[in-house]
Amino acid sequence: MKEKKRNLHSCACLPQRYVLSVFILVGLVVCYLMRVCVNLALNEMTFKLNATESHSGTKQHFCPVEASTANATKTRAEFDWDQHLQHDIIKSIFIGYIVAHVPAGVLADMFGGKHIFGIGILVSSILSLCFPFLARLSPYAFIFGRILQGFGQGVMFPSSSALIAKWAPPSERSTMTGIIQSGVMFGNAIGYITSGVILSMFPGWEPVFYFCGIIGLIWCVGWYTLCYSSPAEHPFITEEEKNMIESQIAATAKAKPKNIPWKSILTSAPFLTANMINFGHAWALFTMVNEMPAYMGKVLNFNVKSSGLFSAMPHIAMIPTSIGIGYLCDWLIKSEIMTVTTNRKIFSFLGKLGFYHFQLLIN
User: DSSP letter at 336?
Assistant: First the structure.
């Protein structure tokens, strides 16, 4: 017992706010790994459409299937699910994902972000291990499992926001947020590359789901051992770091209103504008995330390893930008070159503008 305490206290030499940030980042990586592996695995689980032959002089819309790829698909594919059913499986996760957001924020405030975030990944991991069984049981059982996984993953951002509010000093908030948000890009990039490699290594498609589930369970062990909902609850944070975080947050804290002004919020022009911008960004991003593997695997007939690599490329490019812009934003605010509001407006605009233009170029 003494040895365990000594090992835990030795971790105190690390800034615990950044230990938490890295754990949240890895948690997001695990969640996106579990999410995107389905997009790639469906190409191997289902029979491909080979429409290279022209009918009535119409233009061909599919690239030829190589003999080796075609043979591999026949031996691996189990399900004759049409494209509509496959899309239902892919998008079903967003049903639970959307519904979970508001309750997750309320529960994180009540019980602490640590528990809500951890339970979400635990549920997602267990379901990932069950997906091969559910898929063979029925496509609708698979869809139901994906909806439940969406509930688990829908708690990620509300609970991580609750954790940032407790742990991030205002002067480091952009940096910590940038580190955490890069987990989305790391997750998509690592998810596609890893899934492509695993699916190409094994004769069946099941191992990719087992791999994701086991990684998630391992993460849960570290999370519940080393991370806490607030500095006050942390058993081996240094007093210096704890006082610094709490004093900076207290200095900028505002009194919590007795009644939430919902009407003013929902009719606020800045609020509505921010929602419209983020809605458009999310639409474009998730279209790319969900449709690119199917397009490469079913239309261009790339093998699964190449599909994973090419699907990962946009997300790899986002990683240095996400982390670097966080540092730049903090520096501009600390140097009093920009106010917080101006900073957020400019970089939000630039981020959305570049993304949409390149999305059009891809098309």
Answer: T
